[in-house]
Amino acid sequence: MEKVKIVGVAEHFNLPWHLALEDGAFLDRGIDLDWRDIPEGTGEMCRLLQEGKADLGIILTEGIIRSISQGNPCKIVQEYISSPLLWGIHVAAGSDRQSLESLEKERVAISRKGSGSHLMAFVHAQERGWDPDKLEFDLVDDLEGAIKHLGSGANAYFMWEHFTTKPLVDNGTFKRLGDCPTPWPCFVVVARDGFLGERGGEMKHILEVINTYSSEFKDIPSIDRTLANRYGQELDDVREWLGGTHWGQAQLSEEKLRKVQDRLSALKLIEEIKDPETFFWP
Which of 56, 67, 90, 105 to pair with 275, CA 20 to 30 A apart? Predict the structure, then answer.
């Protein structure tokens, strides 16, 4: 049985995948799904897919659309999280900055070029009326790198998922100055073209399994407590996150694809608007 290599972030959004793996639901379909956490996020996952080191990824929508537009041989298979992602905007806890307005000329700490922390910095700047062309970046690899970078006295701000970083705000590592939600569904399931061409039947089985688990996820008894325990979250925070998070089981719409491309194009992050066939499977 040949492995299917899948990558994603070690965050609460992906618990349905782990529950399905723990239940042996993919093995029951004859699929050996091999999950790997990628703390560096979307930019690194795009690279792994492009180099054939991963078959599937659970990736931020804006990041993979940009990557595919730039030639990454992958396709969006379907939405995974159909609600927006809430990006917290953080500085070091000891910083004297008290408002988002104070960040206009500051550097931005990002995990990778092409990552969500990179692309959403442009979106956030545009929404605040700042000049996105003047943004300057510090590469910090991942959340741990951001903790060290901001804690070392770097006068940068860092954007990361609100609830993932909430414990770091609570314990005095970060100070959150505000939030920036994505203007589109935040996560999609992506597969490289070679995998889809050779093993499209397995892809359909994988989707059937995860869509069953994700559609029933909120109905699992005490799922809020399970999430809180597994991801080190406060129960009230988990309940707030669950209330605003929705799992999708259908393909991303052409309208939403166009919305992402239009924004990336306006920010000069892609060169042209491409047809849906460039991005969607089948």
Answer: 56
